[in-house]
Structures are given as C-alpha cells and as structure tokens.
From TrEMBL:
Basic residues composition-biased segments: 207-220
SUPFAM superfamilies: Homeodomain-like
A Pfam family hit: TetR_N
Domain of life: Bacteria
Keyword vocabulary terms for this entry: DNA-binding, Transcription, Transcription regulation
Disordered: annotated span: 200-220
Binding region for DNA: 41-60
Alphabetized Gene3D superfamilies for the sequence: Tetracycline Repressor, domain 2
Protein name: Transcriptional regulator, TetR family
Amino acid sequence: MNTEPRSYSSPLRQQQMEDTRQRIVEAALTLISEQPQEAFSHEEIARRAGIALRTVYRHFPSRPELLDAVWKTSDSQLELSHYPDTEADMLAAVEPVYARMDAHAPLMRGLLRSNAGQEMRRRDNERRRAAMERALAPATAHLDAAGKRGVLGIFQSIFSGRAWETMRDRAHLQEGEPARATEWAMRTLLAQLYRDQKVSAREGQRHAKPAAKRAAKNKA
C-alpha cells in the first residue's frame, strides 16, 4: 500500500497564491509611496493588504525576501537596475530614466525617502558604481586614482534619483527639464575632460622630448 503523502495543486490554487503575493507587494509599494516614514514591517503591510499576518510571513518569511520582491516590482516600472557601461549608452539613458521617474513620481520619492527604499537601492550601489566607472574610463584615462574617483562621484550625484528629486522639488523644474539639465551637465563635463586629456597629452610629449635628448646625449 502506497502511504506516501500526495501534494495537491491546481491552477486555481496557484492563481490564488499569486494574487495574494501580489496584494502583499502592492501594499508594500503603496506604503513606500504614500507614507515613506512609516515603519516598513510585515505587520503594517498585512494590515494594509487586509491579509492575515501569518499569510504575509508564509509568502515572505524574512524582510530581505519581502524587499527583494518589492524592488523587483518597482523596477518593472522604473527600470532603475539597468546600468549602462559605455559613455554613449549612459548619455542616451538620461532622458528615458528621468521620464520614468516623472511618470512614477510618488513611488520614486518613496524609494528615496523611506528606509526600506534606501535599503533596496544600497544593495545595487556597487553594480551601478562599477558600470558608471566603465562608462567614464575613456574620458578619465589621463587622471590619477583620486581624480577618477572625484569625477565618478560627480556623475553619480548628477545622474541620480536624488538629483531628479532636488531639481523637481527644490529648483521647481518641470517634467522633462531635469533630464535636459542633467544631460547638458554631463556632456559639458565630458567635453572638458577630453580637452584636459589633450592638454595632458601635449604636456607629456613636450616633457618627453628633452628627456629623450638628454638620454641620447648621455649614451653618446
């Protein structure tokens, strides 16, 4: 006699589970968007979703698992986790990235202002930093390590959610204007970096010629 337990599953049951999971994630996103200073907890999300606390824990046993699901859903709207790693792609990304921030402004502000949102964004910071470092490599080839870090810091600051928020909420730029301002700033800085690079190369050549002559004279 076969006594092994049988698992029961049906398309309806699976759909119900998925719907419940989505309700939990949507409640978390609403919390972040509407009340970013509110504690991000299983208890608060269960209350907002109208779901039993044990059900929230069944779907998301830990805070990191819940944050991962919320980040994945928010990224499907904002697409912030794609980091261009060439100069051309970086410049081309400014307008569409800022357009999505404009289109989902409450969610974007919630991600910037809530502890949960900051925690989610910190997880991706090193990948974002590395991609931008690769994008800036040609323009910063003439700089030392400290100079490269400085340029990277400036670009990370001006092409960011924080910059978008400052331009929209403090400088009162209208929809579309933060993208144009940011792209202008980035292109201006890149142009100056390439001018400095040419000057540095000419200086290097100028100093190299006397050194070569002295070396030849010493050999003679």
